[in-house]
Structures are given as structure tokens and as C-alpha cells.
Design goal:
Blueprint: E1 16-20, E2 23-26, E3 31-34, H1 37-40, H2 49-59, H3 72-84, E4 89-93, H4 96-113, E5 121-125, H5 134-139, H6 143-146, E6 156-159, H7 164-170, E7 175-180, E8 183-184, E9 190-191, H8 196-207, E10 210-214, E11 238-241, E12 252-256, H9 258-261, H10 277-290, H11 295-316, E13 321-327, E14 330-335, H12 341-350, E15 353-354, E16 356-358, E17 362-365, H13 373-394
Parallel strand pairs: 3-15, 5-6, 5-7, 7-10, 10-11
Antiparallel strand pairs: 1-2, 2-3, 4-12, 8-9, 11-12, 13-14, 14-17, 16-17
């Protein structure tokens, strides 16, 4: 018999009921160090005082207003994002999936209104994940996510990630844009090489394509810059973001240049809840904190420390872990063949630390950006202990069996 809550998630047998800072509590009384942050969402941790105050204040004044009217919070947040990024304009919606779909629509409309309606195809990468809508599934490349949902929308071509030669060779007269994650999240925390995004920008400029970045997971301070592409010194035409943007409140956004967004006139796109006053209060408080002087410097310092500590654990446990990968506080640890990432996630949970699995047998650490040295020590100690237990369980006995 089906459960009242549709069973499309493989959930734990406990519920999370309360959070504060870096910690979260379950209904059975256990406390966990949250190194997953709701999959890179709770960038300021749980119940950050500034975020709570902003939401309480807004909740007492106005929750929702249709986008038929001006929404002051949207204008304030958009002004901030335009001032601090490449963008000339911002569209607000509710999630990363919606943001990516909006970006795809924008790219197609750009070429259509430019007299090039045949240019509608989007180039994206193998191993990518762009959301769960039908269009986003077509843009991504995970076959397991697609089973039973075909036929998918037409217009998407895939090339190997981080391969500029393959990307250039795949451009046709029908290509409208290149869509790429600076670091593939669900695909296994695979970071592009230093010159990749610069090369993508050059290919887009050469062929008249739009460069579209999926910074749903990499954005909003996760890598030590407001957006990850800033490390490459390039600017995209369109950028989709969400997750950490609202510090835990559901909100997404599409940032774009004037040239890319010009065709998106009244009636071309919309969102009932997108940019509602509560969401804008959350974004304003989150960005106001992340952009404070010294905040991102602290993120970079903690990322360097975490990477150093994790490298030591990997070196000490070659029978369990193969490498560390990612960028900033978006970190993946790849398990060796024969050790399933879910097993390590479970062991870490037993020792009071929440992590997140990803593709390529990777365990993700995506901690709140407020992480401190003591939290890193706690997480690394739990990882070391978990690895020792997994290695011990797999070690052969004197008789050749296993313990």
C-alpha cells in the first residue's frame, strides 16, 4: 500500500526537527553536524539570526503579491545582484530546475528574435545534472533519471565534460547555447580544469552562441566567490542559480546580460510565486551576510583547511578513499571500487555527521559557509573513524575470510 507521502525518496528512518548553526537534531534525540546543508542550501546554517529576523519582519507585513504589481524586495535584491555580478537584469523564480529551464527558454528566444529560429539546440556535458523537469532531464545526461519519462524534449546534444575539442566539434548551425556547470555536483563533484570556462567563452564568442552557466549548486559563496565562474575571469551571458541563494528559503534566479534578456518582454515568461516578498527578504538577508567584508575570505580559509585535512584522511585510508575533488566548500571524496559511497555516508551518520552521496561513487561535503575549525576537526575525526571501521570490516582474516 502506498504511503500518504509519495515514496519517491529513499529517506532515513528518522525525521529532522530542529536546527541551530552547524547542527541539526532528529526526532529520536540525536544531534548531527550538518556537512550537507540540505544539499548546499543552508549556506548560513540553521536558523541564522539575521535570516530569521528578516523573515519574521516580512511575515508580519506581506507574504505574497502577484507579479502583476511591483515588488519592492525584488527591485532591491536585483539591484544588489546587478551591482555585484556581470548581470544587467534578474528574473526570480522558485528553484534551480525552474531557473535552468528559464535560461534555456531565454537562449532560444534570443536567437528566435534575432532572426535565427533554426538555432535552438543546446550543447551540454556528459555527467551533468540540470534539474528534474522534462526539459532539464533532456539537458542533463543521467539515464537513470530519464527512465519512464520519454520522449524527452528535442534539442539537446552532449559532449564530454571539460573537453574543449569535443565541444568545438559539436557546434552546428543549429546550436544556440552552451550550458555547463563550473563544478558538476550530482555528477560527482567534478571541477572543470582552470582554462575550461575561458575556452567555452571563446567558443561562444566565435560562433555567436550564448554561454549559459548552471550555478545552482556552485553559486552564492559556495566556492569562495559569489559565483564560481569568477575564478576563471570570464562572464557568461546567462546564469541560473538557486539552492544557497535564500539560505534555505525556496527561491531561484536567472541573471542575464541585457543582450541575452532583451527578448523576454511582458508575456514571454512568468512565475506565480517567483520573487515573492518572503523569498526576497530571505535573499536580501543571505546576500547581505555573504557579501559582508571578510565573509568569503573566511570561506576560502576554511575550504583550504578542510581540503588539507581530507587529503590526510585519504592518504591514511587508501583502501577506502581514492581522492578529494571539487572547489571551495563543494568537496567530494571518491570511494575506491568495492566501497559504496552510501556505506560511507551511513557510517558518517552513525558517528553524528551528515554528508550527501553523488555520482562516480562520491561522498559530498557541502557544509554551511559559517563552518569553523572546530567543526572541521569534528567532521574529519568522524570520517577517519568511519574509514577505519570500513577498512577493518573488509580486511581478510588469517584464514582468508572476512571479519
Amino acid at each position: 500500500m502506498i504511503t500518504a507521502v509519495m515514496p519517491n525518496y529513499a529517506r532515513t528512518d528518522f525525521a529532522l526537527i530542529r536546527g541551530e548553526g552547524m547542527y541539526i537534531w532528529a526526532d529520536d534525540g540525536r544531534r548531527f553536524l550538518d556537512m550537507g546543508a540540505g544539499i548546499a542550501v543552508n549556506g548560513l546554517g540553521h536558523c541564522h539570526p539575521r535570516l530569521v529576523a528578516a523573515l519574521r519582519d516580512q511575515a508580519g507585513r506581506l507574504w505574497h503579491a502577484s507579479n502583476l504589481y511591483r515588488i519592492a524586495g525584488q527591485e532591491k535584491v536585483a539591484d544588489l545582484l546587478v551591482a555585484r555580478t556581470f548581470a544587467d537584469t534578474v528574473f526570480f523564480n522558485n528553484s534551480g530546475a525552474e531557473a535552468v529551464e528559464t535560461a534555456i527558454k531565454m537562449a532560444r528566444r534570443h536567437h528566435h528574435d534575432g532572426g535565427r529560429p533554426e538555432r535552438f539546440r543546446i550543447l551540454s556535458c556528459e555527467g551533468s545534472f540540470h534539474g528534474r523537469s522534462l526539459t532539464d532531464l533532456a539537458a542533463g545526461s543521467n539515464e537513470a533519471h530519464r527512465v519512464g519519462f520519454g520522449p524527452l524534449p528535442e534539442g539537446f546534444d552532449h559532449v564530454p565534460f571539460d573537453n574543449l575539442n569535443a565541444l568545438r566539434a559539436a557546434v552546428t548551425d543549429g546550436t544556440a547555447a552552451i550550458l555547463v556547470e563550473p563544478v558538476q555536483g550530482e555528477g560527482g563533484i567534478r571541477a572543470a580544469s582552470p582554462g575550461f570556462l575561458k575556452g567555452v567563452r571563446e567558443i561562444c564568442d566565435e560562433f555567436g552562441l550564448l554561454m549559459v552557466l548552471d550555478e545552482v549548486q556552485t553559486g552564492n559563496g559556495r566556492t569562495g566567490r559569489l559565483y564560481a565562474h569568477e575564478w576563471s575571469g570570464i562572464t557568461p551571458d546567462i546564469l541560473a542559480t538557486a539552492k544557497g541563494l535564500g539560505g534555505g528559503f525556496p527561491v531561484g534566479a536567472v541573471l542575464a546580460t541585457e543582450a541575452a534578456a532583451a527578448p523576454m518582454i511582458a508575456g514571454t515568461h512568468g512565475s506565480t510565486f517567483g520573487g515573492n516578498p518572503l523569498a526576497m527578504a530571505a535573499v536580501g538577508a543571505t546576500l547581505g551576510t555573504v557579501l559582508e567584508p571578510g565573509f568569503l575570505d573566511q570561506v576560502k580559509d576554511m575550504a583550504r583547511l578542510l581540503w588539507s585535512c581530507l587529503a590526510d584522511v585519504v592518504g591514511n585510508h587508501p583502501a577506502v578513499l581514492a581522492d578529494v575533488r571539487g572547489q571551495g566548500l563543494m568537496v567530494g571524496m571518491r570511494c575506491v571500487d568495492g566501497v559504496e559511497n552510501g556505506r560511507l555516508v551511513g557510517k558518517m551518520m552513525e558517528h553524528g555527521v551528515l554528508t550527501v552521496p553523488a555520482g562516480e561513487n562520491v561522498v559530498r561535503m557541502l557544509p554551511p559557509l559559517i563552518i569553523e575549525e572546530s567543526h572541521i576537526d569534528e567532521a574529519v575525526a568522524a570520517l577517519d573513524r568511519s574509514c577505519r571501521e570500513i577498512a577493518r570490516d573488509a580486511a581478510p582474516t588469517a584464514g582468508g575470510g572476512t571479519i
